[in-house]
């Protein structure tokens, strides 16, 4: 069995999936990993909606694309996106990147995931964001262990204007909120790892201003 | 009449609480703040500019702002708003001094809600600059057709 750190380090956010059925047993294992997460006061606020219906996935993909598209269009027209991509010299690649972001295509892949697990949370507990985040990470790691790809796609629920549409679409009652949709499927891509800050940059000793003496 | 200091204390505390919970994502949770108020008004218009002017008129009459101007750049997408004498300005200025970036502008939220609803256009705030010394703010927004 792979050791835990290897699983953690080889997890990627997968945005392209094979057209292959993901059995319910595997989805239940993923959710089982979420179910065994810690939660404040053992509140267990998590609830999960498994979405396979193409029309619902299409609607979620559209909401995701609208959210991302708005955000990145604002970044583009103020020139901040051009600053962010200054290092990318190939004009064609740059143009493609801008189009992918401003059109919202960067998030619309959600519609093409074989399964979407919607992580929801009950609000009448004390530690909703912490509990839900821990459950979500457990699920991502279990998916990786099972040979499945996954991606947390917050684009359809970041903004209140979109969040409301998702709540209506999925008939989520008052007293609950959507934490994040998780795209799940067999990976059809192998992205390189994204850069990480070094341990030296993120560890302090005793107080925030004290790094290890060398 | 609500005591102004009380109003500012409460609203700035709430904004600070949200910022410390959500950081930069606070903006996205606050995009509908102000919508209830403007929904009670009869806002009409055949163009984005007309809707914007109708909202500004209401906000002036209700003493939410003293004045506001706006212009579109050549892209026809990016609008630059200047708002003067806004009742939220002292709150945002205080938060800015305390290191909380400005992530909310209720007057612009109200305008954008109505542009979105009436004109069926996509809208987003790009950035907000608080200039307390000038007694105003500059807010850049995008308004566009989303395919």
Give your account of this protein's structure.
The complex is a heterodimer of chains A (214) and B (147). The two termini of chain A are 36 Å apart. Chain A is 45% helix and 13% strand. Chain A has helices at residues 4-10, 24-35, 54-77, 80-84, 91-102, 105-108, 128-145, 160-169, 199-202; strands at residues 46-51, 115-122, 149-152, 176-185. Chain A contains nine helices and four strands; from the N terminus they run ααβααααβαβαβα. Chain A is of the alpha+beta class and 214 residues long. A four-stranded antiparallel beta sheet of chain A has the order 1-2-4-3, with helices on both faces. Chain B is α+β, with helices and mostly antiparallel strands and 147 residues long. Chain B has one domain (4-145): Muramoyl-pentapeptide Carboxypeptidase, domain 2. Chain B has six helices and four strands, in the order H-H-H-H-E-E-H-H-E-E. Chain B has helices at residues 4-22, 26-29, 35-39, 48-61, 89-97, 106-119; strands at residues 67-72, 78-84, 122-131, 136-144. Chain B has a four-stranded antiparallel beta sheet with strand order 1-2-4-3. In chain B, a hairpin with a 5-residue loop joins strand 1 and strand 2. In chain B, helix 1 (4-22) packs across helix 5 and helix 4 packs antiparallel against helix 6. The model of chain B has no long low-confidence stretch (mean pLDDT 96). Classes of the chains: A alpha+beta (214), B alpha+beta (147). The interface between A and B is medium-sized, with 16 and 24 residues.
Could you write a compact summary of the structure shown?
Chain A is an alpha+beta fold. Chain A has helices at 4-10, 24-35, 54-77, 80-84, 91-102, 105-108, 128-145, 160-169, 199-202, and strands at 46-51, 115-122, 149-152, 176-185. Chain A contains nine helices and four strands.
Radius of gyration of chain B: 15 Å
CATH superfamily of chain B, by name, is: Trafficking protein particle complex subunit 3
**String of helices and strands of chain A:** HHEHHHHEHEHEH
Based on secondary structure, the structural category of chain B is alpha+beta
Percentage of residues in helical conformation of chain B: 40-55%
Biggest interface, and residues per chain? Answer: A-B, 16 and 24 residues
What topology, given as strand order, has the largest sheet of chain B? 1-2-4-3
The total of beta strands of chain A comes to 4
**Poorly predicted regions of chain A:** none
The number of helical runs of chain B is 6
Q: How would a textbook summarize the main sheet of chain B?
A: 4 strands, antiparallel
Q: What is the rounded Rg of chain A?
A: 19 Å
CATH class of chain B: Alpha Beta
């Amino acid at each position: 069995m792979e050791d835990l750190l290897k699983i953690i380090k080889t997890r990627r956010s997968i945005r392209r999936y094979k057209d292959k059925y993901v059995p319910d047993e595997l989805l239940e294992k993923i959710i089982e990993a979420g179910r065994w997460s810690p939660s404040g006061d053992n509140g267990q606020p998590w609830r999960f909606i498994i979405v396979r219906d193409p029309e619902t996935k299409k609607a979620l993909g559209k909401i995701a694309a609208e959210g991302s598209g708005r955000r990145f269009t604002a970044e583009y027209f103020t020139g901040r996106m051009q600053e962010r991509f200054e290092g990318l010299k190939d004009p064609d690649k740059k143009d493609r990147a801008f189009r992918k972001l401003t059109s919202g295509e960067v998030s619309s892949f959600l519609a093409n995931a074989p399964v979407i697990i919607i992580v929801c949370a009950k609000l009448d507990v004390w530690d909703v964001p912490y509990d839900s985040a821990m459950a979500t990470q457990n699920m991502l790691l279990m998916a990786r262990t099972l040979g499945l790809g996954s991606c947390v796609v917050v684009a359809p629920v970041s903004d209140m204007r979109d969040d409301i549409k998702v709540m209506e679409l999925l008939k989520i009652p008052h007293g609950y909120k959507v934490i994040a949709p998780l795209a799940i499927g067999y990976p059809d891509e192998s992205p390189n790892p994204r850069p990480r800050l070094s341990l030296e940059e993120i560890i302090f000793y005793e107080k925030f201003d004290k790094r290890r003496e060398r | 009449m609500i005591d102004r200091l009380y109003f500012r204390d409460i609203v700035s505390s709430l904004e600070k609480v949200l910022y410390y919970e959500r950081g930069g994502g606070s903006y996205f949770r606050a995009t509908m703040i102000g919508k209830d108020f403007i929904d009670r008004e009869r806002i009409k218009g055949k163009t984005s500019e007309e809707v914007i002017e109708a909202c500004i008129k209401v906000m002036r009459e209700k003493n939410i702002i003293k004045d506001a101007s706006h212009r579109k750049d050549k892209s026809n997408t990016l609008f630059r708003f200047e708002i003067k004498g806004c009742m939220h300005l002292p709150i945002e200025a205080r938060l800015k001094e305390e290191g909380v970036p400005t992530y909310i502008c209720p007057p612009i939220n109200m305008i954008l809600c109505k542009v979105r609803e009436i004109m069926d256009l996509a809208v987003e705030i790009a950035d907000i600059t608080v200039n307390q010394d000038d007694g105003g703010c500059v807010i850049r927004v995008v308004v566009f057709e989303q395919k």
